[in-house]
Amino acid sequence: MGEGKMTGVIIAGGKGERLKDINKDIPKPMSRINGKTVIEHQLDLLKKYGIQSVYILTGYLGHVIKDYFGDGSTFNLNIKYLDEDIPLGTAGCVKPLAKILNGDFIVFYGDIILDIKIDDFISFHHNKGGSGTLLIHPNDHPYDSDLVVIDEDETIVEFLFKDQKPQYYGNTANAAIYILSPDVFNYIPDGNSDFIKNVFPSMLRDGIKLYGYRTSEYVKDMGTVDRLEKIRIDMNVGKPYKTCKVHKRPAIFFDRDGTIIEYVDLLHKVDDIKLFSFSPMSIKKVNDSGYLSFIVTNQPVVARNICDTATVVGIHNKIETLLGHERAYIDRIYFCPHHPDRGYQGENLTYKIDCECRKPETGMILQAIEQYNIDVELSWMIGDTTTDIQTGINAGIKTILVRTGKGGKDNKYNVTANLILNNISDAVDYIISGGIKHEDILNIILKKIKCKNSPFVISIGGASRTGKSVFATHLKTILLEEGIKTMIADLDNWLIGVNHRNDSMTIKQRYRYNDIEKDMRKLLKGFPIEINIYDPYYRTIKDKDTLRLTNEDCVIVVGVPAIDIEGLRNISDLKLFITTDELIRTERFFSYYRWKDIQEEEIKTLYEKRLKDEVVFINSSKQFADLIIENKGGWYDYNKNSI
């Protein structure tokens, strides 16, 4: 297989029956999108990557294409044409090129809009050294797509046609873009034939090497009116350009067990998989957002010889199938089959090694970064264990611990996530659409901070489970980006441990109001203060720490009673009260205490008790807030109160 100058081939002979109502007098590839025909967009891409010689294979209304493009000189290209008198199929129409081409060529179907980094595609093809490379990608309708099955080396092993799929399958769809060597001509018969149904399977049967090049760049066919309109919308917002690999993209890395699917110890049976109900919709939001989505999972079941890698792939196929039914997809699943510890009966010694891919090592994430050109600074790791959080920290990406699965109770690593949220639904909402939507809030805060000598004190209060800590964390991030050094003081660390409480205690006693006021005044005067570290799971004091100012410009004091404490109000420069719909708060309250392994009846009793002895008092402190901020399911709106 040579590495000479690549030739472009565009298959443009189809009638486009599904577009006949809007394209009566032109062939489908001459449909206009953003002022250019589909073929023109394809030619622009080929030219961008130095492919000057192009063959356009025409059929129905082919003269329209010839009249428009001519010999290509107007477009700084060399264009030639081959006409088919009768439909010959995607491969049959290419057969006449056997007498013309003696080097590799790249094939586009004429109804495709795409923006891909072609030189990476070509490099992959050359490095693999096969007779052909197919561009494959995940999509949101794998159930009615032709799929390409590849092995760990990206070698194609099988094709799954739309109407001949097994129960579960991976989501690697044929994108109708190929790089082929002249070897392919030996497998194209005379007459009508199709690449994916006839030619490629025939090559595989003869042991000819074909490879699959995985990408998540923009590749869409415009074969229906709805798809054409969707592409026009995408083009208007620059989606093809933004998703091309020449640009860095942010990504969300998901753990698998206990995060996307329900936790099963040493999962090794396909039948045991159960997606969380919120997983498909959450991942669909990621797909629609511009973020890439990946699963990175440790699977030591292989090293322990409980199952083989094929079984793990089968498990992943089921996950991808179930997600696909809901029009969601994962861009790629990475798994580590290794385990460093030996001594298990029947273990597979091949996989009993120290490796760079087993979390909290970062090998899987680094592989994705290299393959997909990921923007590390804007990316996130979401998981249910401290191992996941340590992995994200090691990789230099932000982290969210979710309370599903192990909920951080594995205690393997002494780490703190950027955020702790109930599940991936909340996590994705925060990443994709969360945060402070109104610049007015930020402008008010920034203006006030810059008008006062340090430190500027922001107190954030409100009933439990309204989103105060998430807001405080997000605010701190923004302030740091503005060059404002910020500290958070969490009032939960002043709580009395559950073993030292009694039913007659008020919120003032549980939170030690007097100590909070005294400690905050001491801190702001520059003295260090010793604080407890409250463990929310065990509801006890687990450690001690020292809090001191080190030239902070801003101190955020966050907690249920932050605005209810008069002395704290008096030393606060800005008082914020966070609220949310009570139904949302109730759901979060119950979810939070379930995570603590408290029984349902006890949670209900506690909820009703807190309504009477806590919420009513805290809500009355709203009157003292400068801003009342409403948490609307991950993002925040506001009403002015006193400013």
TrEMBL record:
<keyword id="KW-0479">Metal-binding</keyword>
<dbReference type="InterPro" id="IPR023214">
    <property type="entry name" value="HAD_sf"/>
</dbReference>
<dbReference type="InterPro" id="IPR006549">
    <property type="entry name" value="HAD-SF_hydro_IIIA"/>
</dbReference>
<dbReference type="InterPro" id="IPR036412">
    <property type="entry name" value="HAD-like_sf"/>
</dbReference>
<protein>
    <submittedName>
        <fullName>Histidinol-phosphate phosphatase family protein</fullName>
    </submittedName>
</protein>
<feature type="domain" description="Nucleotidyl transferase">
    <location>
        <begin position="8"/>
        <end position="231"/>
    </location>
</feature>
<dbReference type="InterPro" id="IPR006543">
    <property type="entry name" value="Histidinol-phos"/>
</dbReference>
<dbReference type="Pfam" id="PF00483">
    <property type="entry name" value="NTP_transferase"/>
</dbReference>
<dbReference type="GO" id="GO:0046872">
    <property type="term" value="F:metal ion binding"/>
</dbReference>
<keyword id="KW-0378">Hydrolase</keyword>
<dbReference type="GO" id="GO:0016791">
    <property type="term" value="F:phosphatase activity"/>
</dbReference>
<dbReference type="InterPro" id="IPR005835">
    <property type="entry name" value="NTP_transferase_dom"/>
</dbReference>
<dbReference type="InterPro" id="IPR027417">
    <property type="entry name" value="P-loop_NTPase"/>
</dbReference>
<dbReference type="Pfam" id="PF13242">
    <property type="entry name" value="Hydrolase_like"/>
</dbReference>
<dbReference type="InterPro" id="IPR029044">
    <property type="entry name" value="Nucleotide-diphossugar_trans"/>
</dbReference>
<dbReference type="InterPro" id="IPR050486">
    <property type="entry name" value="Mannose-1P_guanyltransferase"/>
</dbReference>
<keyword id="KW-0963">Cytoplasm</keyword>
